[in-house]
Structure formats: C-alpha cells, structure tokens
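FW: tagging you since you asked about this chain on Friday. Here's the raw sequence from the shared folder, copied in full. Didn't touch anything.
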Amino acid sequence: MWGSDSFDEEDRYWDALEELLGSIDPIEFKHRYRDITKALVSIVLPEKFERLFHEITLCYQLGLFNAVVVFCRSTLEVVIEEYLMKKSIEIRKREKEGHLESLINRCNEKQFILESSKDKAHRIRSLGNDILHEGSTCTHQDALSVIRDTITIIEDLYKE
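HL: got it, structure written out here
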C-alpha cells in the first residue's frame, strides 16, 4: 500500500518512472515530435491556453493518446464556456444534452464556429466520452487529429 513505508514508496516511485521512461521508444518520440510541431506551426492561441497545449503535446509525444483526447475535450469545454460568457451568451443545458454538447450547439447557433468545427467538436466530445465512460482507446492518428481539430475550433473562436 502506498505511504506505508517511505523507503518502499521511494522504490515504487523510481520503478514507476523507470517503467514509463522504458516504455518510450526514442524513434517514435522523435516522429511524434515532428508530427506535433507540424500541427502547431501556424497556431496563435491566447496565452492562457499555450500552457495547456504544451501539456497536450507532451502527452502526445509520450504516447499517452487517451490522455490527449480527454485533455482536448476538457480544454474545449473550458474554451467554449469562457468564450460564451465573454460574449454574454446564456449558457443553458438542454434536456437530453450534456454540458459540452450544449456549449458546442450554442456556439454553432450563434455562428461563432463553422458547421465543420461543430462536427469536429462533437467528434472530440464523443471520443473523450468513450474513453472516460466506455474504456475505449485511441491511436496516435486519432490523438493527432483531435489536437488539430481542437486548434481549428479555438482558432475559429479567437479569429477576431
């Protein structure tokens, strides 16, 4: 059990770190670094979201693809909710819709995002929900696509 003995706890820490680092293929890490830097080359984000994207890209490079999707889903929820509040748009949850689903639909109704971005946002929401609630997994291609789509949606919102 964690915390039972500080020496054992430290050993478990180093074992976990060794397991994580040992599972990273340096060649794959390098390829994923190239993939992600290409995806981010033209992005101009509000400063507060730059830190989030740094963490998302690190998860991608480390091969934590499910974490990427869940993190992007969460980021979208925060970004869209904040954007609607900034525009003084009422945020209301409709019956039979989840919170993020309502936010996405509201953004689209107000024409703050394109129809194609609405579809991308719902795909990210759905993939994230499947990972969180169904135990699904995703590939590196899924994760990279989700990162690109998240960027597109945020750029749609902050294009002004």
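FW: The helical segments are 6-22, 26-39, 47-61, 65-86, 99-109, 115-134, 140-157.
HL: agreed, and The first helix runs from residue 6 to 22.
FW: great, closing this out.
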